[in-house]
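Usage

Read records sequentially. Each one opens with the input sequence:
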Amino acid sequence: MSEKPADKPAAAPTSAPSKGGGAGMIVGMVLPALLAGGAAYGAARAAAKAPAHAEAPAHREVKPPGPTVALDPFLVSVQDASKKAHPIKLTVAVEFEVTAKEDMLKPFMPRVRDAILSFVRTLSYEEMTDPAHSEQFRTELLERCHKIGATDATRILITDLVSQ
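and closes with the structure output:
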């Protein structure tokens, strides 16, 4: 009788199975696909809301200025941080609402000059000459004009500023 070969153990697989089984492979393929699909959907929605041709932003209609009263130049001496005096020539114009009548503005001009001069004399040389403070300077002058009764004033224009 011939002998049958003894049962041999099964050969060991050459590669080890992954630790999560097939689930890790499914997540690795499905998750990027879902994210890409979501991004494409969001882009399509955004494109649908945007106009086909980009329109230029609407320009604000600029109203013409009302009467503008140029004041005589102010000559003041202001001190810097080291208490050194600096002469400054300041020329200012006050712009009023379009509806303001020029003959009604003239009585306010001495008050406006006084308010501006009173404020300028409180400033230091650094505050007067620093360009970063110019908008704050204009705003403060406009508020002072409103306080003295020139409520039609809409803008302060600094037309000249010379310092030494």
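Summary fields computed downstream for this record:
- The helical segments are 22-49, 102-105, 109-120, 125-129, 134-147.
- The chain is about 40% helix and 20% strand.
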